[in-house]
Amino acid sequence: MQAARQKLLLATKNQGKIREIQDALERLPAEVVGLDDVLPGLDFEETGRTFVENARAKSLFYSGMSGLLTLAEDSGLEVDALGGAPGVYSARFSSPRPTDPKNNRKLLRLMESVPPEKRSARFVCCMVLSRGGTVIKEICSHVNGSIVFDPRGENGFGYDPLFYYAPFKRTFAEIDPSEKNRVSHRGKALKRLSAFLLEYLKAAG
User: Fold this and answer.
1) Of 55, 69, 170, 171, which is most buried with the most CB atoms under 10 A?
2) φ and ψ of 44, to 5 deg
3) Angle between the 185-204 and 15-24 helix axes, to the nearest 10 degrees?
């Protein structure tokens, strides 16, 4: 008789992130579930000053509440001309009531007078895997790019329409999601995490 697959809780409600993570981990011997499936209505306030601090806190909190193997991530955009902003505030950059379009418009306003050669930026992703309130693995990855002057492309989410990736000569929103995931900050982190999880789940039986 085949053993039941372990559940892996994704500690996020961001549907774009959930889709990318589920696609990347679909071959693992685990049932990937979201917060709304396990802990509906339970929210965690992010107070960390770095991506890894936020990811670690979320992972420990939700793994402690659920008792499940839990993957939390924090990611965002760092723009050099803005001193690293929006950084950990990427998702709520245009608060109150932030949305992706509002965040993008605010970023473009702040970057209006910045010349092309000074529009460097990077996407950063930190992932933390925990169980029962104990950290098992931490992974951080990034990808370098620059900020365009106007949104370009219809794919992706968040700041993808503004993030120009020089090797492809397109923004992340102009490329196919599978192509983006090969080179993106989250894609790189997930590749490393997937390899770790495969061995971890095998050992856990």
Assistant:
1) 55
2) -125, 130
3) 50
Distances in Å between the Cα of 75 and the Cα atoms of 55, 64, 186, 204 are 9, 22, 8, 29
> Is the model more confident about 41 or about 196?
196
CATH 3.10.310.30 fits 6-204, yes or no: no
Contact 173, 154 (CB under 8 A): yes
pLDDT computed for residue 40 by the predictor: 86
Which one, of 205, 51, 46, 28, lies nearest residue 128 by Cα? 51
Q: List, as one string, the DSSP characters of the chain.
A: -PPPPEEEEE----HHHHHHHHHHTTTSSEEEEEHHHHSTT-------SSHHHHHHHHHHHHHHHH-SEEEEEEEEEEEGGGTT-BGGGGGGTT-SS--HHHHHHHHHHHTTT--GGG-EEEEEEEEEEEETTEEEEEEEEEEEEEE-SS---SSSSTTGGGEEEGGGTEEGGGS-HHHHHHHSHHHHHHHHHHHHHHHHHHHH-
Residue pair 197/9 in contact (Cβ under 8 Å)? The answer is no
Kindly list the catalytic residues: 74
